[in-house]
Amino acid sequence: MAIKIENLAKNKSSKIRKLIVSGLEIITAAGVPVDNLTVRRLEKMTMSFLALCDMNQLKKWSQISSISNGHTLRTREIITYINKNYEEDISLGSYDDIRRKDLLRLVGMGLVVKSANNPQADTNDGTRGYAIENKFGELIKKYGTDGWEKAISSFALDQDYIDNFYSKREIEKLEVQIESGISLSLDNGPHNLIQKAIIEEFLPNFGYQANVLYIGDTSNKHMYEYPEKMVELGLNIENRGMLPDIVAFSETKQWLYLIEAVHSSNPLNPERCIELQRTILKSCKYGVVFVTAFLSKKEFAKWLPEIAWETEVWLVDNPNHLVHFNGDKFIGPHNDSPSFK
Question: How many whole angstroms from its chain centre is CA 102?
């Protein structure tokens, strides 16, 4: 299941939302699987993680706590911290969800450690608490600094946990030909069927030799990307959860393609396009082509009222045609500020 960051903590203040989004980015960068978790479960997992870091909107990431400086919290204390710092009102009676759900994967990967007055204490021992593991704590302190990318690339992921997690849901893969000599395996599902068709049919027909710079698979959001090239084009990729499903660039036309593959959510509606302009595209000087792709006319019809003006729609079952939503040209960027609504 693809998680769209714009749905995360959307009812919270901007500072708290930014903190939660950043926390989730750290968790996923450390390899924690987020498959099949609802948006609410992701929020609670991330807020539990932030509580163990003793991280709030008044602190910098370099100031987080871990087990090395004695910051341990029991489950009820985690809820109390969350309610106090992250605009929540979670019942203390739900404390067992912290252990059984919210911290389960973090503990399983050794990123969060259990502590108690007696290290061999029973699971339900009242003194048992949780803390950020020391090496993970050192990694977290690098977040938002120039050293983050190097630190995460050298961080020792618990690959055994990750492999075992995904082996439980081993499914047939889709082989996608990215370019000559380069192919990629995507999970087999409706969303990735659309992505495969975009790469193998839409871009060859309408992309003017565009090169794919980014693909987000449903189980591995950043499985194929050229961050250096995206930065060179002026894209703000610090918050990569904001990226659409596929990013491509045509050297021939000097056009940037932002493409959403829509199966169950998130077409390029006016709000999404405006958000992309104000975040990812804020410093981009190239013309942008916005495209929403669907499997069929039937699927497209469900989302028709939401599609933004001055964007394109492409259908997998009619690959040689485009649906153009108004504007002053058939396909291409609109150099004047587009009127998406």
Answer: 18
Q: What is the mean pLDDT of each run of 10 residues along the chain (341 residues)?
A: 69 94 94 87 96 95 93 94 96 91 93 69 63 95 93 84 66 66 74 91 94 75 74 86 88 96 89 92 94 95 94 95 79 64 61
Q: Are strands 224-225 and 211-215 parallel, antiparallel or unpaired?
A: antiparallel
Structure tokens at 214: 């980014």
d(CA 199, CA 224) in angstroms, rounded, equals 13
Structure tokens at 266: 């998130």
Residues 287, 280: contact at Cβ < 8 Å? no
List C-alpha distances in Å: 19 to 46, 64, 102.
9, 13, 17
Domains of the chain: 5-166 (1.10.10.1820), 173-324 (3.40.1350.80)
CA–CA dist 170, 219 (Å, integer): 11
